[in-house]
Amino acid sequence: PRAKADVPAGVTVCQLCLVSATPGATPGDTLLLTRLERGAEPVSVRIATERGQAPLSGLLRELERIQREQRDANACTERREWWERRSRLDLRMQ
After folding, report:
1. Which Gene Ontology BP terms does the record give (predicted)?
2. Which domain holds residue 23?
């Protein structure tokens, strides 16, 4: 498929989609995580959220906060502070 050819060499794209796993299921009851790399088949993992340990809405809010803080960190011009922010964000993503 074309998406594989559009990804630059050396770049990994992770796509997170909120989907319904089966017809008639609760809308947005499943997360679909897909990894795209040039020259490789896409890898997708389905993550059911109905009986998850954390509410999906809370996880999505945290992801939005992390993305916002990453944008702020990218504007940081001091190298040490940038790395400290980046390390804290990496830990939160784990």
Report:
1. meiotic chromosome separation; proteolysis
2. 1-52
